[in-house]
Design brief:
Elements (H helix, E strand, L loop, with lengths): L19 E9 L5 E10 L4 E5 L6 H8 L7 E6 L2 E2 L8 H5 L2 E5 L10 H11 L4 H14 L15 H13 L5 E5 L7 H16 L3 E5 L3 H7 L1 E7 L2 E8 L1 H7 L4
Parallel strand pairs: 3-8, 3-9, 6-7, 7-8
Antiparallel strand pairs: 1-2, 1-4, 4-5, 9-10
């Protein structure tokens, strides 16, 4: 695997190289509490991958490692062509611009309109106003919120707020979209709407990684499923959550 990267740890121009690569990654928190143990993962451009497992299994730690919010105790992580351990502190924000991120709790700015919440992601990277005025309505149309541009988050349903968060995550055309329990606060109808949007985004070429507890969605969509238990990958295959549940009854 490492041969796909040059001596400076950057991705070689190899069309087959993974867009996300974990090599023997372990993570321990304070007092030596293990969260992940010797994890190896390859995710290629354009894949749609679910990461599943019970609470405390290590799923969210995987996302935090990809975002460089935490550092691995050992091992190497490559994302979007970069070895994360080699990123200087001042380059982390630039790296994160290649990623779109959606959380369970939406994380919208309550005092800004829907339009302003999405546009904020572009203003942070100093996108020209003309481009913001073009891109933001286009992205809101994609998630079906063209008529809500002037509304504030408190005026929206949970499903609508998550769609705003999704539009914000996508407006800068990320290579990878990371979604951490994106349907955790939604009812079944809104959950399926969000998943259909994620599937459409994936069809357009974005690599999508979804952490979820939602067995019904995972079983129905039949994508690649990485199952984590006690910090260890116990299954990695295409299919549903049910297989992992039957094989690993403690998940």
């Amino acid at each position: 695997m490492a041969a796909r990267y040059d001596l400076e740890g950057q991705l070689k121009k190899d069309i087959d190289a993974p867009v996300i690569l974990f090599e023997n990654v372990s993570k321990e928190y304070q007092q030596g509490t293990p969260a992940l143990k010797n994890i190896n993962i390859e995710i290629r451009k354009g894949e749609f991958v679910f990461i599943v497992g019970s609470s405390g299994s290590g799923k969210s730690t995987l996302i935090k490692l990809m975002l460089k919010e935490v550092k691995p105790t050992s091992g190497k992580i490559y994302v979007a062509g970069k070895q994360l351990s080699r990123l200087k502190r001042w380059n982390v924000s630039k790296y994160r611009r290649k990623l779109g991120v959606v959380f369970q709790d939406f994380r919208l700015l309550p005092d800004r309109t829907v339009f302003e919440n999405v546009a904020f992601a572009q203003r942070v990277i100093e996108t020209p106003t003309r481009k913001i005025q073009k891109d933001t309505p286009r992205m809101l149309a994609l998630v079906g919120l063209s008529e809500k541009m002037k509304s504030y988050p408190k005026e929206l349903s949970g499903g609508e707020q998550q769609r705003v968060a999704l539009a914000r995550a996508l407006v800068n055309n990320p290579v990878i979209l990371l979604a951490d329990e994106p349907t955790g606060n939604l009812d079944p109808k809104n959950s399926w709407e969000i998943m259909r949007l994620l599937e459409e985004i994936n069809r357009r070429g974005t690599t999508v990684v979804v952490v979820t507890h939602n067995r019904e969605i995972v079983d129905e969509m039949q994508k690649r499923v990485i199952t984590v238990r006690n910090g260890i990958i116990v299954s990695d295959q295409k299919g549903g959550y049910a297989y992992a549940k039957n094989q690993y009854s403690n998940i």
